[in-house]
Write a structure and sequence with these properties.
By secondary structure, the protein is an alpha+beta fold. It is built from 6 helices and 9 strands. Belongs to the peroxiredoxin family. Prx5 subfamily.
Amino acid sequence: MIQIGDKIPATTLMEFIEVAGEGCSIGPNPVDTAKASAGKTIAIFALPGAFTPTCSAKHVPGYVAQFDALKAAGVDEIWCLSVNDAFVMGAWARDQKTGDKVRMLADGSAEFAKATGLTLDLTARGMGLRSNRYSMLVKDGVVKALNIEGPGQFEVSDAETLLAQVKAGL
């Protein structure tokens, strides 16, 4: 399992873009995690699935609400990762009104989740292999803080916890 001090996995996530710009075409675009995190401070949070109750009611809205505070504390970008396809993540971004505050990144085949060791097997509930719920602070590709939730919990991966860690200088 990924630990504080480790580099994040070098995988490719997908991001749905609705408006062409800055070298991004309309539609799903690949995001190389190593390149996208280089030289940046990134607040990453991952969750089991788009449009699921806790994820939609608490997790994503918390990061949208704390966007200004996280930016003021030195975070360059906020990434939301889920084992869904880019089209679903794009629709969820519209639904959650993430705008340019949170990058909604699809880990469609769970490659990032598998590489971190933070998977959640929800096969018995008809959802297959998913990502565990967690947050991490990443500086220049290196994990500086890692907050992993217990099964069915939402206590440590929220935006307020990560904001406190950023402010503490992690």
